[in-house]
Amino acid sequence: MYRQSDMADRLQACETAPRPVAALSQDYPAGASTGEHAHARAQLLFASEGVMVVRAAAGYWVVPPSRAVWLVPDVPHEVRMCGPVKMRTVFVAPDAAPATMAESQVVAVSPLLRELILAAAHLPLEYAEDSRDGRVMQLLLDELQTLSVLPLHLAMPADRRLRQVCEALTAAPADETGGAAWAARLGITPRTLQRLFVKETGLSFRQWRQQARLLFALERLAAGARVIDVAFDAGYVSQSAFAAMFRSQFGVPPSAFYRG
């Protein structure tokens, strides 16, 4: 049974493990949250079953099965469970993390990496490095260098004015208020609004709203909502328009995404 105090003890053991890589497994009920926390080691969060939403000051990530989120060290974050989740976590010492993983991001998990993560969760913290267990952990590190980054992150701006816009749009993704109207509310020009969005999030206002709607949809689909309901709640005029956008992002229709 999930108990946060037990989890804290196990996390601490992984943080101070004598080897550069450590892993653990923990099952969570639907709606559970880890609370905000941070780790001195980098972290690969993977759910063999279920969907996680990871929130940090810079934004949030939706992490469905066959994906994982990589968090660099010392990033305060919270993990919330969409339905029951079987979480498997790999902790990597800063000096052992691949140079290609310098930023927090959602990545694709290959069948090989999946099996390595599941195996690592059963290994002792003081495994012999020149052993089968040590080679499993080394191969896991090698696999991290081959991962593909996925568009499952929504950047949140630091600018107070844009934060107001973004919080409103995440709370009501179907809101059709345009950039010019938001600029008027904030007392700035539309050009300034667009410039700030690109500077703060790397996306235009329109691109950011589409990404917010996409991640909202992923959460709702994970909870078992009907595709047609998700489409309208996310602000699309029809199920077909939503499905076309979804397929353009992931190569599959929304009904098949979690089966994949």
Distance between the termini: 29 Å
- Residue share in helix: 40-55%
List SSEs in N-to-C order.
HEEEEEEHHEHHHHHHH
The residue ranges in which pLDDT falls below 50 over 5 or more consecutive positions are: none
C-alpha-based Rg, rounded: 20 Å
Return the domain count.
Answer: 2
Average per-residue pLDDT, rounded, comes to 90
CATH class of the largest domain: Mainly Beta
Structural classification = alpha+beta
Secondary structure: number of strands? 7
What is the architecture of the largest domain at the second tier of CATH?
Sandwich
- Sheet bearing the most strands, described? 7 strands, antiparallel
β-strand amount:
15-25%
Total DSSP helices: 10
The shape, in one word, is globular
- The CATH topology assignment of the largest domain is Jelly Rolls
What does this entry look like structurally?
It is a single chain. The model has no long low-confidence stretch (mean pLDDT 90). α2 (111-120) crosses α3. It is built from 10 helices and 7 strands. Helix content is 42%, strand content 22%. It has helices at residues 4-15, 111-120, 132-144, 160-171, 179-186, 190-201, 205-222, 227-233, 239-250, 254-257, and strands at residues 21-28, 42-56, 59-63, 67-71, 77-92, 105-108, 153-155. The protein has 260 residues and is of the alpha+beta class. The chain folds into 2 domains: 4-144, Sandwich (Jelly Rolls), CATH 2.60.120.810; 156-257, Arc Repressor Mutant, subunit A (Orthogonal Bundle).
